[in-house]
Amino acid sequence: MSLAEQFEWFADWCVGTSPLYEEISREIADDPDLLAIAEEIPPKRGTPNILFAAIHWHLLGGANHELAEYYPTLTDDPKSDNPFPAFREFCLVFETELLPLLRNRRTQTNAVRRCTALFPAFSHVSKEVGGDPLALVELGPSGGLNLCWHQYAYDYGDAGQFGTSDFVLDSEIRSEKTPPISDDFPAVASRIGIDLNPLSIQDEKDVRWLRALIWPEHGDRHRLLQRAADVAQQHPPELRQGDAIEELPDVLAEIPDDVPVCVFDTQMRYQLPDSAQDRLRAHIESAAQERTIHWLSGHESTDEWDNAFTLDWFDGEEYEPLVAYEQHGKWIRWLL
């Protein structure tokens, strides 16, 4: 897919959810100067996402330009006329400032509402190991906000609200089967995340990058991210830098043999090439021969559900779907 085609594809993806990025993306696809700037982004990093996030990052940081007047994150009354002339001018004027972000940053999101699917999944694993405290290992945690899942509360509508935190994540249950949720949260022994480029929740610039990756119209996701970041700053998880697949065996070796392990990822594995997925599966299956280990891994659903992902559950012997969820956690469907 050519660079222009990537922006056309991205525009189609934005339909109905980000009119700002949709309109700009279609114009970028026909603009040689902006495509040349986008070429500075290394391949396979989600070029449109990185370009838009880099610009959003500078605007959130106070860059003084008319373009800010089109962003709902920066004004209560965004302009509605064609934003592309201002966008194009911003890119050309601030090109030097943009290049470090374009060349070095990655698409790293923390959609914390996905914890509404992780909570019942962890509860299921906890039940399987007799309630023993779990050692949690997240692959590709970004800023580690989902490792703080047990510091949040959960509202599932008619199914009830669980937890005592002031920060509440809401989701709709769309299944006849009831997920295993209660106020008795699974016990956690330890939390470790492994990421090529972990983001520090204590670093304002890293938190701003997480914000910049969220599309400007998604006000609810911006609100949830900021609240979750506040919680995580009080309860920071341990994040390790490195290739999650290659570092996993060493991290597992550090965990006492009598502590059950739950490795998890949400929307990381489906982005890996088949060879990397095979290596990851081999590492986990090998470790499961020596100790109690469970794996929750998200991938795109092949069912008819819109924007759905599925957490598959590996219990040391078999794999089966456990819970489906809308990509940002707006609803979950318990499958077991």
Describe the fold and architecture.
This is DUF2332 domain-containing protein. Pfam families: DUF2332. The protein is of the alpha/beta class and 336 residues long. It folds into 2 domains: 3-104, no CATH class; 112-334, 3-Layer(aba) Sandwich (Rossmann fold), CATH 3.40.50. 38% of the residues lie in helices and 18% in strands. The chain is built from 11 helices and 12 strands. The chain has helices at 3-14, 19-28, 32-38, 47-60, 84-93, 95-104, 115-128, 204-213, 219-234, 244-254, 274-287; strands at 134-139, 153-155, 161-162, 168-170, 172-173, 188-195, 238-241, 261-265, 293-300, 308-314, 319-326, 331-334. The strands form 2 sheets. The protein has a 9-stranded mixed β-sheet with strand order 5-12-11-10-9-8-1-6-7, sandwiched between helices. Strands 3-2-4 form a 3-stranded mixed β-sheet, with no helix packed on it. Helix 1 (3-14) runs antiparallel to helix 2 (19-28) and helix 10 (244-254) packs parallel to helix 11. The chain starts with a helix and ends with a strand. The model has no long low-confidence stretch (mean pLDDT 94).
Keywords:
single chain, 336 residues, alpha/beta, Rossmann fold, nine-stranded mixed beta sheet, three-stranded mixed beta sheet, 12 strands, 38% helix
Layout of helices and strands:
Blueprint: H1 3-14, H2 19-28, H3 32-38, H4 47-60, H5 84-93, H6 95-104, H7 115-128, E1 134-139, E2 153-155, E3 161-162, E4 168-170, E5 172-173, E6 188-195, H8 204-213, H9 219-234, E7 238-241, H10 244-254, E8 261-265, H11 274-287, E9 293-300, E10 308-314, E11 319-326, E12 331-334
Parallel strand pairs: 1-6, 1-8, 2-4, 5-12, 6-7, 8-9
Antiparallel strand pairs: 2-3, 9-10, 10-11, 11-12
Helix pairs in contact: 1-2, 4-8, 10-11
